[in-house]
Amino acid sequence: MLFCCLAVGAMVLTMAVAAWPDQKILFACTSTLTLMMVAGVRKSIIMYRSPPVMLYADREKVVTHFYNRSYREQGYEIPWADIVDLELVKRSSVGALSSRVKKVTIVLHLRAGVSAPPEISADRSTDGQTVHLDASTGTLRGERLLAALHQLRPQMSPPLDTTPADD
Predict the structure, then answer these.
(1) Lesser CB count within 10 Å: N end or C end of the chain?
(2) Is a pLDDT exceeding 60 seen at residue 130?
(3) Three-state secondary structure along 50-86?
(4) Which helix (H) or strand (E) holds 110?
(5) Burial class (CB in 10 A: 0-12, 13-18, 19+), 24
């Protein structure tokens, strides 16, 4: 991919230099395209070297950085105490050009009374009681991500009986 962009960029730059004396509009257009391609290659390299954080989890909380179909630096925290269950959901749908797209999400079912904004859900669910985390990309995905989240999730102990004992 990078090689193709560089090859096309070199051809466009050659056209721009060849067109300079006679056709200034062609030179301006090809120079602009060349600069845009260089900026795109630069952004691709940066994204490859340090991809955005999608999800963070520890023993206290899960933080999703997904918001409105992109990833941002500020995350949305969901404490483990608010999560009732974790579930792996695999779906396939028709994407662009009639190709099948496999979508894997981990669904966090939230306890009653707790809701999350729909913008943080990867499948744009309007149900505030569930949050869908993208599990189809990243270094951990699918079953491995679900297992890692289950390991981090604290074991919920049953509530202690606080009624006084009758003697």
Answers:
(1) C
(2) yes
(3) CCCCCEEECCCEEEEEEECCEEEEEEEEEEHHHEEEE
(4) strand 100-110
(5) exposed
